[in-house]
Design goal:
Layout: H1 13-38, H2 41-48, H3 52-58, H4 62-85, H5 91-108, H6 111-125, H7 127-133, H8 137-154, H9 162-179, H10 184-199
Helix pairs in contact: 1-2, 1-4, 1-6, 2-3, 4-5, 5-8, 5-10, 6-7, 8-9
């Protein structure tokens, strides 16, 4: 910033939505890079090019800002995943559409995955974060359950293996979020591997695992 330039304070109404959007985007990167505790209000304000006080025009606290970032990330991800699976009628087709959507999202904005990985780490260490973010698990869990129930309905998944399949799907898709924080090629390789795993082509053995 040039010496005679000033950071933005409370903006006029016409710029309010744009400023809030910028704060959320920069906060997502800051929290992903540094975690919740190490991300100070000054650091967040500097990234968004506003005054520290201006943050409180939009968010009552750093926790409120973190929760809003998490809400936005979940909405972006699960809106995209809902749209991806909607045209398909089978478990396998829906799962393939999910893989495609995950790759597209990672290509468009890798900070989504990075933030979610950082948030999960922080939730395990900071009780107030775990409490504040717990409600967001509802949409995720409902999405996973609906996916697996499709497979049960079509006969692709045995009803007595519903819970086990649900656990595997959750672990797999959460794991792909972690893989998204690595290189783009690592992420693509993991997605290809999961595709082959579900198709039964990744490993062959005459012995049960």
């Amino acid at each position: 910033m040039a010496p005679n330039e000033r950071r933005l304070g409370r903006p006029p109404a016409s710029n309010s939505a744009a400023t809030k959007s910028r704060i959320l985007a920069e906060a997502r990167r800051c929290f992903a890079d540094n975690g919740f505790e190490a991300s100070t209000n000054k650091m967040l304000a500097d990234r968004a090019d506003i005054t520290t006080g201006a943050i409180y025009h939009y968010f009552g606290s750093k926790l409120d800002l973190f929760v809003d970032v998490h809400r936005h990330v979940h909405q972006v991800m699960y809106d995209r995943l809902d749209d991806a699976v909607e045209p398909h009628d089978s478990f396998q087709a829906k799962l393939g559409a999910i893989f495609d959507a995950i790759l597209e999202l990672q290509g468009e904005d890798p900070w989504l995955a990075r933030f979610l990985v950082a948030a999960r780490t922080d939730m395990g260490r900071i009780p107030e974060l775990e409490t504040a973010l717990r409600p967001f698990a509802g949409r995720r869990d409902a999405f996973f359950a609906a996916l697996v129930d499709t497979g049960v309905t079509t006969g692709e998944i045995d009803a007595d293996k519903r819970q086990m399949t649900l656990d595997v799907v959750a672990a797999m898709l959460i794991g792909l979020t972690n893989a998204g924080t690595a290189s783009a090629e690592t992420h693509r390789s993991a997605v290809r591997g999961f595709r082959e795993l579900w198709a039964g082509a990744l490993a062959r053995s005459s012995e049960p695992v």
